[in-house]
Structures are given as structure tokens and as C-alpha cells.
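Q: Give me a backbone?
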Amino acid sequence: MRRLTRTVPAPADLGTHVVGVPTGSDLELDLRLEAVMEGVLVSGTAHGRAAGECVRCLDGVDLPVVVEVQELYVYPMRAHEEDEDELREIEDDLVDLEPALRDAVVLALPFQPVCRPDCPGLCSQCGARLAEDPEHRHEAVDPRWAALSGLATAEPADQPGEGDDRDEPQAG
């Protein structure tokens, strides 16, 4: 067994379009390499920082990323034909850790990152930040009832019989 600790630059596209580890940022790898019958078992952890946007308010989000990595790299002649697509092979005495690292990091990232758990987001009508103005409101009137809204605010008309000239005989 061999222990390996390295700080490496993050590969491109290590994340999703919403949140991911920036290309070239430091990833700290703490790995254990073990010789097994089929090849080399690589296991350990990777530490880094992910950056993105809050899906509610679009503010920047900076998250710690800590993932467990475990992958078996088989010797070229040890892979069975039916398992060939699922196993990673050792090539020229080297293992390519990037695909296993990418799988672990992308699965560990939040699907919908938020800047804080109670982030109210943006107003759906005007885009105002609701965190800055918690009392922000819009008077929303259902367009089907919009014609009737004028009746509620208009002054009531005189009722028949109350000052109406129609019931009184006309002089003349």
C-alpha cells in the first residue's frame, strides 16, 4: 500500500452549469493505492471549493467540496470482455483519476445551490431582491376580474327613492 498526497489543478468542466469547481483551482488529493489481484485499487478523498450562483437570487455561492473516491484500475489483460466498459484500465503504468474524480464531485454538488437555506429569491414580476425588501408586494388582480375592480373602488350611486326625482310628480 502506498499513500499519496498531492495538490493538483482542477480539470475543466468539473461540475454543472450552475455550480462547479473552477478550472485550475486547487484540488487536494489524499489517496491510498493498493495492489490487488486484478490491478490497483485507488481510494481516498478530494478537497476543493466550488463556485456558482444561488438558484433563487443569483448571488455568488462558494461551497466546500469533500468527496470520497474509490476506483479499481485493472491490468490490461485482466479485464473480462463483459466488464470491459465498466472497468478502467491501467495504461502505461498510469491511472487516469480524472473520470472517477469527476463522477464523485458532480454527484456531491448540490443540484440547486442556494446562498442560504432561507433565501427568499427574486420577485417573479419585477426581479427585485426579496432579501433586501421583505415587505415587497405587488397588487395582483386576476385579469378575468379586472373589469369588476373598478366597481369596488367607485362611490356607490344613489339608491332609487333616496333623492331621486323619478318618483316625485313634476311641476308644470
